[in-house]
Amino acid sequence: MSGHAVFTARLRALPTAWAGQNPDRARQILHYGIHSLVTAQLRAREVVLGPAGSWYREGPGPFDEEDLPSDRELAARAVVVIDNARRHAREHTTAATRNAACRPAPWPNGPLFTWPTGIALPRPASAVTGSTSSRCPAPASP
Fold first, then answer.
1. CA–CA dist 41, 83 (Å, integer)
2. Residue 89: is its pLDDT beyond 90?
3. I want to staple 83 with a disulfide (CB 3.0 to 4.6 A). Which of 44, 56, 65, 142 is the partner?
4. pLDDT over 80 (residue 133)
5. Would you say the pTM of this structure is higher than 0.70?
6. Domain ranges in the chain?
């Protein structure tokens, strides 16, 4: 897993290097006051997950070499989180598919037995008046 980071210290100094691909987007970026950029390609298991970017806007000076280790660490941690989420989603989908395949097929004419919606239970002895002998007859003697 990797998060290789590259920085562009001053965007206004290199307008053709990054702005040539999308001039409208470049104008928006400069209009918002973004002046320094660090980008990282997020890769996990030889699969490119996408880009990650950090930028300074109207604030401190530009990014420099000292900022790269922390940006690399952030990108590497993001890769781990994203990769774990992708793997979890894949495993969950696989398990759900297997569980669905293991369920028995429904009966063609409906279920053989329907569970009752309610079962009448006897009331407790304290709620019944009278002697217990009238409710619980004694066993017959031999």
1. 14
2. yes
3. 44
4. no
5. no
6. 2-102
**Would you mind telling me the total number of residues written for the chain in this entry?**
142
Name 57's bridge partners: 34
CATH architecture of the domain with residue range 2-102:
2-Layer Sandwich (3.30)
Q: How far, CA to CA in Å, does 101 sit from each of 8, 91, 139?
A: 53, 15, 53
Per DSSP, helices labelled H in the chain are 15-19, 23-31, 68-102, 132-135
pLDDT digits (tens, 9 = 90+) for 59-76: 777 777 887 788 888 888
First-residue to last-residue Cα distance in the chain? 84
Half-sphere exposure for 35 (CA within 13 Å, toward CB) = 9
- 78 token code pair: 């993001």
Residue matched to tokens 């919606």: 117
Tokens, residue 53: 């970017």
